[in-house]
Amino acid sequence: MLISDINTIIQNENSSTPTTNDRQILAKLKIYSNLAEIIQPLGDLPLEFSAEDWSNIRSDSLTLIGSNVNLTGQTITEKKNSFNNQLIYVRSPLSSQTETRFLEATMIDENRSLVKFVDNNISQEPIFFTVSSNEILYINEPLRSKYYVNFTYDATDTVYVSYLRSNLNWKTRYQLYLFDESEEPILIAMADIRNNGKSRIDIENAELLAGDINLKMSDQQNSGAENGFYRALAPAYNSQFPTTVEKSQEVAGVYVYTINQSFSIDSKTNYLLPMFRPQVNVTRFVSIYKTYFYGVTKSTGKGERSYRLSSDVFLPRGNCMIREYDYFVGERYL
Question: pTM value?
Fold first, then answer.
């Protein structure tokens, strides 16, 4: 709550600002192990991106695609609204621990946090001084930089914009169940799709890609640690037909897994989908590593549980949890 009194206002220390959850609708996604390619019909130009979205986009990947498009030019511009000459409030020296008082002032140079204040009790002339950012109360919400991308092109058919985004990726998780030699082993594969952004995304069409792929994030980008994440198994009751990952198609050493229908992922969420159950053969044996010392006849060795697995289909790289007779006995990275 704010209480105004002439040119002074009081702010309660416990006041808070409500927030809203954003939602993004993505027409087509090609999701890789560390990046995702966003493909959208080209809308009005220039395209606008928030600073947060831009931090997760590889700017060198932004381009136009289509069956007949000729890109002739492209510009990327950063813009930020200035608060210079805007009315603000700055923390008053009369503030106490129970309440914070702010004085009306004018921002002169926001880069230096230089403000102008008029107090006839002190001087007939304006007083200029600098303040720290946490001592400023803005009348309007401070806006972060926005990025604008513009294209010039020639096209006769539908044009799409394509770019890589680092806060959306996927990996494979496996569960291997081993029984008596008379029973066939079971390998279950799940697609683990991670939305590490702050917005919920609605995905109309998506493909998961694995195999001979070499894509890297730029040095400035970081996908972020999965601390405090929420993991959700795709619920089958949301649709008459459950969302699943279809069998792969191999194209030039790249394996493409198509998701059979549209779906949504909340922010900071891992979304798991069933993939396939391949026919596998597993050989169990014990590996012994020996260490020999020159000139000494005695040697030492240690036995280690090992497995050799073969499958009738390509297995994307991923971590595999191993159970024998309903007990976890280890894990391996396939």
Answer: 0.71
Token reading at 142:
């401070």
For residue 213, give Cα distances in angstroms to 220, 253, 267. 21, 8, 26
Would you kindly state where each structural domain of the chain is located, as residue ranges? 36-80+145-165, 82-138, 168-215+229-274, 280-333
Residue-wise pLDDT tens digits, 72-121: 999 999 887 777 888 888 887 667 778 777 888 888 887 888 888 887 77
Please check whether residue 192 is in contact with residue 173, taking contact to mean a CB–CB distance below 8 angstroms.
yes
Torsion sign, CA atoms 274, 275, 277, 280: negative
Say whether 72 sits in a helix, a strand or coil. Answer: strand
Neighbours of 157 (CB within 10 A): 8
β-sheet with 230-233: strand ranges across: 230-233, 269-274, 186-195, 168-178, 318-324, 327-333
CA distance 149 to 4: 42
Handedness of CA 265, 205, 256, 176 (dihedral sign): positive
**Following CA atoms 204, 208, 214, 218 in sequence, which dihedral angle do they give, to the nearest 10 degrees?**
40
Tens digit of pLDDT for each residue in 175-216? 999 998 788 999 999 999 999 998 899 999 999 999 888 887
Q: How far from 38 is each of 29, 59, 128, 291, CA to CA, in Å? A: 5, 13, 48, 52
Residue 51 phi, psi (nearest 5)? -60, -35
